[in-house]
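Supplementary Note 3. Input sequence used for the single-chain structure prediction.
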Amino acid sequence: MTSIAFDKYPVKINRNKVFDPVRKKWIEITPEELVRQHFIQYLLLEKKYPVSLMKMEHGIIYNKLNKRGDIVIYSHTGMPMILIECKAPTILLDEDVLMQALRYNIQLKAPYLVLSNGIQTICFHHSVQCEAIPEYNRV
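The predicted structure, written as discrete structure tokens, is reproduced below.
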């Protein structure tokens, strides 16, 4: 499990909205959205991922149902590299959350899978838990 000090990665807030640099628009604030936006800032500032390789709420079809992966990071060749599933801080990162992310990843086949609720962050590489999310130049 990885501990990320999200308070080191501030987000832009205006009244009841937070700015999403990936979608380039203001989004309604929810606890999950705040986790998502702090995570994006962490990826940009700490791990050096370019915003151009991130996609928010990536559409996935699973069992004929439309689902959304919170953040998907692609390689420079366009292959999915990391699927990140964000939850509100009150949601435990339990087996249900992991199974949800694994179902989404059936289609994407990203080698890295990350779960975060803003308090805890768990990273997997090819289904094996790893210590940290890799930096951009190491993926």
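The helical segments are 31-45, 95-108. The first strand starts at residue 13 and ends at 14.
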